[in-house]
Structures are given as C-alpha cells and as structure tokens.
C-alpha cells in the first residue's frame, strides 16, 4: 500500500514536470527566414540550409518576431554572421516610421521597440571585397 | 488506517522543488545553444560556401578567391532567463523620452570630435538625399548628439530615416557602432513632422 502511494506521488511529480514551462534563453531565427531588402534581385543571394550569403553591395533583412507590449521595451539581439559591411538592428513604429536603428557591436545589439512596433535585422554586404558575406542566425536574447 | 496526507504533501513539496530545479537547469543549459555553431564548433568554410552557392537559387554570387577563410568565431550570447522581457520593463513614451533626454544631459561635455560630428550632421542634412527634412538644431556632447528635425510629411520622414546611416556617412560622420533613436515625433495638422532625434555610440544604449 505504501509503495502504491509512493508511485502515485512520483507520477504526480512527473505530471507536474511535464506541464511546466521551462524558461527559454532566447529564440533563434535562421537567416533564410528573411528576404532581400527593398525589392532587391534574389539572384544576388544564395541560401543553403540556415545560411544566406550575399553579393557585394546588397542587403538582407530578417524580421524578428517580438512579444507585443503596452509600452517601449528594450530587447537584446545576438547575431551569427561574417564578413558583413554593416549589421544593424532597426525598430519601427506601428505606422512604419523608424523608431531606432543601431549598428551591432561585437555581434550584439540592444534595440528599443515602441508599443505595437516591429524589429528587423539588417545585414549589409561590403560594397566590394574578396570575402563572401554570410548570415546564419539572429537570436532574440531577451 | 494511517492518513495519506503526509505522503501527498511530501509529493507536492518534492514536485515543486524538482520543477524549480529543472527550470533553472533548463535555462542554463539552453543559453549557449543559441550560438551552437559559433565558438568551439565547426565554422562555415569555403567548402560550405561553395555548397551554398550552388543550391536553391541556382545563381552564383560574384566569384571570390578560393579558399576562403572561415567566418569569424562568435562570442556567446549573453545568458537570459527568458525570451520574454518583464512587462514591468515596458515604458510609456514619456518615460522613454525622459530617459533618453537624461542620458544626453548626463553625457560628458563636448570635445573636438563632438564639434566635428556636429558639423558632419549639419552637412548631411544639406545634401539632396535629405530633401524634405530640415535640421532645426543639433547639439553634440562627448558621445551623444541631440537633433531637432522638421520633415515636410511622413513620407519624407520614412525616406530620410530609412537611410540615415548612409546619409550621415556621406557627410563624413563615423557610423561605426552608431545608433539613433527618435523618442519624440509629432505629426502636425498640416501633415508635417517634427522629430527629436538622438545619436549615440554603442555601447551606450537608448
């Protein structure tokens, strides 16, 4: 009888664990979920698995889904990319006007987003050069 | 017959403790996973890039010399307890604007580079690319500048600010690690827009 009660208790523990929401450290977005910037020619980009490589002088954006908020919230982004000319995070007001734009520093950026606003990552390949500019992931750290 | 209550209570306490433990371990364990292909793992090599270039689009980016060096290793993303910011961190537009203004006021006094920056900003807004926007005032401290800008309409607002880094760079402003924020923007009855803009250099925020 006692063993049965212990089993019942363990089953309860496992049940609670199964329905518990484990806190996430962040959400990663693959570069391929983005698109060429401003109607650019898709031929200037190559996509394979989770990596997007960009021809010189072209720009790739990756929209970053963020939780809606009743006010302005600051988010942190971390990027996995290489050989880019410039990498920026941009946030926008609900009417589409720019709220904030910031260049990444050491693969990180902090961006504030107004209520109902949106965010995208913007990867700009160098105007010219010998190395291929590629973007892999963008992480919404928090 | 003995009561079942102690065992049920013990089970509940145990389950709570285990849940907390698993949540903590889960948070730590997942933090580095966001950059799992960065430090300490295989970087994208020239071969990988070749695979990339021959797939999906069928188009090849401009040829580049081979072999390419690997892409730079990345630092780990800062650990975070949750992907969802605390709603308490949400600020009203007034609170946010006040914080930005306070940060500007607290910045160190201007130096020679601030004057160069100020001159560069003024020159940028005189360029054709800034058509529709008039710089009413600019004041630079050591790491931050405050601008007041009038724009003919919202279209000019979007056009000028969507390319603000290019505009500033064209006037010699160093845009490396530069950020901008528009904490205050007013659309007047005639459709023109008045904006207060702050420029700052990372690692400063807002």
Provide an overview of this structure:
- The complex is a heterodimer of chains A (142) and B (206).
- With 142 residues, chain A is mainly beta.
- In chain A, the strands form two sheets. In chain A, strands 1, 3, 4, 6, 9 and 11 form a six-stranded antiparallel beta sheet that branches. A five-stranded antiparallel beta sheet of chain A has the order 2-5-10-7-8, with no helix packed on it.
- Chain A is globular.
- Chain A has one helix at residues 2-19; strands spanning 27-30, 35-36, 45-48, 51-54, 59-63, 73-82, 86-92, 98-103, 108-113, 118-124, 133-140.
- Residues 14-24 of chain A have low confidence and may be disordered.
- Chain A has one domain (25-140): Jelly Rolls, CATH 2.60.120.
- In chain A, strand 7 and strand 8 (98-103) form a beta hairpin.
- Chain B folds into two domains: 5-53; 91-201, Alpha-Beta Plaits (2-Layer Sandwich), CATH 3.30.70.
- In chain B, a hairpin with a 5-residue loop joins strand 3 (178-187) and strand 4 (193-201).
- Chain B is built from six helices and four strands; from the N terminus they run ααααββααββ.
- At the A-B interface, helix 1, strand 3, strand 4, strand 6 and strand 8 of A face helix 1, helix 2, helix 3, helix 5 and strand 3 of B.
- Strand 8 (98-103) of chain A pairs antiparallel with strand 3 (178-187) of chain B, so a sheet runs across the interface.
């Amino acid at each position: 009888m006692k063993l049965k009660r212990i089993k019942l208790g363990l089953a309860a523990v496992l049940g609670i664990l199964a329905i518990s929401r484990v806190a996430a450290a962040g959400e990663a977005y693959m570069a391929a979920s983005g698109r060429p910037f401003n109607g650019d020619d898709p031929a200037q980009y190559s996509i394979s698995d989770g990596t997007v490589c960009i021809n010189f002088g072209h720009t790739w954006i990756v929209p970053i889904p963020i939780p809606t908020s009743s006010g302005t919230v600051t988010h942190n982004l971390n990027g996995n990319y290489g050989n880019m000319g410039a990498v920026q995070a941009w946030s926008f007001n609900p009417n589409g006007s720019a709220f904030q734009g910031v260049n990444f520093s050491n693969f990180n950026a902090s961006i504030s987003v107004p209520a109902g606003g949106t965010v995208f990552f913007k990867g700009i390949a160098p105007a010219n050069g010998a190395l291929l500019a590629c973007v892999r992931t963008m992480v919404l750290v928090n | 017959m003995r009561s079942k209550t102690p065992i049920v209570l013990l089970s509940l306490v145990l389950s709570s403790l285990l849940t907390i433990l698993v949540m903590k371990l889960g948070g730590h364990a997942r933090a580095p996973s966001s950059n799992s292909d960065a430090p300490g793992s295989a970087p994208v090599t020239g071969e990988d890039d070749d695979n990339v270039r021959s797939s999906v689009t069928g188009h090849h980016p401009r040829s580049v010399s081979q072999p390419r060096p690997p892409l730079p290793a990345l630092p780990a993303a800062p650990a975070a307890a949750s992907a969802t910011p605390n709603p308490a961190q949400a600020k009203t537009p007034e609170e946010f604007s006040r914080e930005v203004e306070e940060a500007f006021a607290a910045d160190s006094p201007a130096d020679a580079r601030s004057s160069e920056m100020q001159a560069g900003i003024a020159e940028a807004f005189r360029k054709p690319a800034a058509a529709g926007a008039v710089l009413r005032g600019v004041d630079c401290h050591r790491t931050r500048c405050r601008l007041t800008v009038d724009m003919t309409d919202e279209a000019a607002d979007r056009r000028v600010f969507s390319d603000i880094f290019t505009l500033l760079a064209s006037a010699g402003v160093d845009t490396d690690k530069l950020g901008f924020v528009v904490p205050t923007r007013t659309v007047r009855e005639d459709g023109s827009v008045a904006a207060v803009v702050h420029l700052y250099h990372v690692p400063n925020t807002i």
